Amino acid sequence: MEKVKQYKNYIFDLYGTLVDIHTEEQKQELWEELTKFYVKHGASYTKEELKQTYENLVKEQERTYSHEAYPEVQLEFVFQEMFLKKGVQAELSLAIEAGKRFRRLSTEYIRLYDEAKQLLQELKEKQRGVYLLSNAQEIFTMPELEQLGIKEFFDGILISSTEGCKKPDPKFFERLFSQYHLEKKDCLMIGNDENTDILGANQMGIDSLYIHSNLSPEWTGTIKSTYHLNTMNLRIVKEMLI
């Protein structure tokens, strides 16, 4: 087992690193139920029309933010615009409710990897800084952190949808470091994606730990992380870090 040097701060990715999740946005039930929600609130869609409108608006938002190296959209505004397309002036709170319904219907399962909570808890007990840097949607992720019982362990949380950029963009990392006054030499990035977590850490000039999980993308090259673990096992990660 590779031993990791002690750091003051640990920056975690979420999905595929601490949380195992599977979503399916193509299933019929999702679009049937979401269509009923929109119709109930005055936006008359067919199932097919609603799905196409959603996909088109996401693409439009991505073009809007194309000046960013790695743009990220805020889906609550997509769900709000879907009401406006049908002449319904929906409050943002209603759009967020639509987004949460979308997430709930599309989620096949969501759960912590074994030992995830224990890992975070022991880092906190050791007086380490624990941060979350996630390519995700805030309207999905914040409720899921509460649901899974791990939000309390983080000293700081940055989510890409709120920032308008995402990993591996160094700008996303820089915002975390600036907001929480972190020093590069004191930080370790922990994630399961070579293309976002590890590349971003390398561009930022910080050490990294790559964990290969069931949600890791295929990678045929050499993993350019400071440390790596070829299988998802957070018990081993805990032994490496603590």
What does this entry show, briefly?
The chain has 242 residues and is an alpha/beta fold. It is built from ten helices and eight strands. It starts with 8 loop residues before the first strand and ends with a helix.
Could you walk me through the main structural features you see in this protein, from its secondary elements to its overall organization?
- The chain is of the alpha/beta class and 242 residues long.
- It folds into two domains: 9-18 and 113-241, Rossmann fold; 28-108.
- The protein has helices at residues 28-40, 47-64, 75-84, 92-106, 116-125, 138-148, 160-163, 170-180, 194-204, 234-241; strands at 9-12, 19-23, 107-112, 129-134, 156-159, 187-191, 207-211, 227-229.
- It has a six-stranded parallel β-sheet, with helices on both faces. Strands 2-3 form a two-stranded antiparallel sheet.
- Helix 1 (28-40) packs antiparallel against helix 4 and helix 2 packs across helix 3 (75-84).
- The protein is elongated.
- It starts with 8 loop residues before the first strand and ends with a helix.
- Its cofactor is Mg(2+).
- It comes from Candidatus Scybalomonas excrementavium.
- Keywords: Hydrolase, Magnesium, Metal-binding.
